[in-house]
Write a structure and sequence with these properties.
Order of helices and strands of chain A: HHHHHEEHHHHHHHHHHHH
Helix content of chain A: over 70%
Protein name (chains A, B): Heptaprenyl diphosphate synthase component 2
Number of domains of chain A: 1
Number of helices of chain A: 17
Oligomer: homodimer
GO molecular function, one term (chains A, B): metal ion binding
CATH architecture of chain A: Orthogonal Bundle
CATH class of chain A: Mainly Alpha
EC number (chains A, B): 2.5.1.30
Distance between the termini of chain A: 19 Å
Strand order of the largest sheet of chain A: 1-2
Low-confidence stretches of chain A: none
Enzyme class (chains A, B): transferase
Cofactor (chains A, B): Mg(2+)
Chain lengths: ~325, ~325
């Protein structure tokens, strides 16, 4: 099944979630609602809600319960984006002005805080402390990941392992618990919830590697922002680290990155992008993403043969190849 | 009983909380731990933990349960301070460099996020969803309060009611739920938990009004930062609003505030402070604080005559008069 077909099959449930998302951030404070809605309307793939719903199929699928988990996870993702944009000094996200650029950093910080808190009020309505625990621990890890990203800005000496640990915290964990919490909220088998966690974790790792590849190889039209944004803000990603291993370009690429750092991200990144694109870094990063996808699909093996299992596989294959 | 005697009587339990606070923010990320500990070591009155413990006396006082609530509330308070300092562009707090000034705004934002999240992991270990609910709703309100403060910066036309609603969200609510959650965690009578909530709410209102008065009438030594900080950053507080009602100084005070606004808070605030100090605004604000204290003490009436009741009264009286 193509991804579009899957979304259309899930449309009525996803519509419910979309409505709940909108309602959840309509507060009695005009500016907060406006800033939050601006972000919501900018869209997104809603991949976390999709995972929650599909994971819920492996248990007692109740939309009224699952929607709370789905809305919470999407809100947490949104809140982290708002705070990211402050840090990254990003002016556009998904082709739209960011909150920090449309308003200012202060508004963006409190909008993020507000969306985080709102997410928690929704999930705490489910009287399931173990869901609350898993979620709050994941947010802690996400924050640590964000701090690691700042620490590692422009650090060309960092290891690949370092990068992998960082994206684990920054991205993979939230996708992993989207799958896990969907299963838990549906009272599915404990073993299934763990398999789904592993699936989500590996898809999440591949998803982020693919995202980092797109920032180097994609066009502005594909990715909704100018390519090379990562490198300009100092975020040294997998393809860059792998490209730096090539002795022929190592010195020049390092110099280019230093030049960008010294210009506070204002310098042109096209030479650096050219060097990375021409290196083995692209292929090798793609291979690593593919290996994570293999592991994700393997994690599904022990799950019962429901249609949702096939859907999850389709998404994994899509993530491996996506170019937007 | 003097406040110092009360602290010394509670010393062993407060020490446990201090240790837990420290442990809770010692993460595997050096910079996060350092920034969080910096804030923790700067001290503070730990008034929220004190309220949690005293409220717990009206039920089944179990330190292992109450300490989680106390640590969570103090961490949430700390997290909000870190984010406040970003917004306020504050360089010192309690006479110490702020996180945003010692490191930078990005570090401060994620340190705040991290401390918030850490707080939630601690409280979710208590398998009591109603505590999680009350807490997450209070954080939402706090965020709205912070946004209102930004919206109202330098607005000399705002009403006193506006100010009161804002400090309710920004300060009083968290103190109110400190009392309420202490009682709930100790399985105390539902009616007692509500009385304690009302007590905390009214003390919290008085506490903030007193804080705002100190920023105008206190010395740098008393308050750990230069007086007039509020006005320089645009935070128009109760004494200012009341002073603006005086037709004799209205025009000049408004002009002074506008001058400070136009200078981006760089202009000298001493003339504005002088005008406010000489107005009826000080007395009237003090009277309002005193009325909240009266209401707080009245809220205690229906509670059983335990020593903790007397302690709460003593704290309320102290808040009414504190000058640090």
């Amino acid at each position: 099944m193509k991804l579009l077909d899957l979304y259309s099959k899930m449309k009525s449930d996803l519509n419910v979630i979309e409505r709940e998302l909108e309602q959840s951030i309509t507060s009695d404070h005009a500016l907060l609602s406006e800033a939050s809605l601006h972000l919501l309307k900018a869209g997104g793939k809603r991949i976390r809600p999709v995972f929650v719903l599909l994971a819920g199929k492996f248990g007692d699928y109740r939309l009224d319960v699952l929607q709370r988990v789905a809305v919470t996870l999407e809100l947490i993702h949104m809140a982290s984006l708002v705070h990211d944009d402050v840090i990254d000094d990003a002016d556009t996200r998904r082709g739209q002005l960011t909150v920090k650029s449309k308003w200012d950093n202060r508004i963006a910080m409190y909008t993020g805080d507000y969306i985080y808190a709102k997410a928690l009020t929704i999930v705490t309505e489910l009287n399931n402390p173990s869901i609350h625990q898993i979620l709050s621990k994941a947010i802690v890890e996400m924050c640590i990941g964000e701090m690691e990203q700042i620490r590692d800005f422009f650090n060309t000496e960092q290891t690949v392992r370092n990068y992998l640990l960082r994206i684990r915290r920054k991205t993979a964990l939230l996708i992993a618990i989207s799958c896990q919490l969907g299963a838990i909220a549906a009272d599915s088998d404990r073993k299934h919830a763990l398999s789904l966690y592993r699936f989500g974790y590996n898809v999440g790792m591949a998803f982020q590697i693919r995202d980092d590849l797109l920032d180097i190889c994609g066009t502005e039209k594909q990715i909704g922002k100018p390519p090379g944004s990562d490198i300009r803000q100092g975020n040294i990603t997998l393809p860059v680290l792998l490209a730096l291993r090539d002795p022929v370009i190592h010195q020049e690429l390092k110099q280019e990155i230093n030049r960008i750092r010294e210009s506070d991200g204002q310098a042109d990144a096209s030479r650096a992008l050219h060097l990375i694109r021409g290196s083995h870094g692209i292929d090798e990063a793609e291979q690593m993403a593919a290996r994570y996808i293999d592991k994700a699909i393997k994690a599904l093996e022990e799950l019962p043969g429901l249609p949702a299992k096939k859907n999850l596989m389709d998404i994994a294959h899509f993530v491996a190849k996506r170019n937007y």
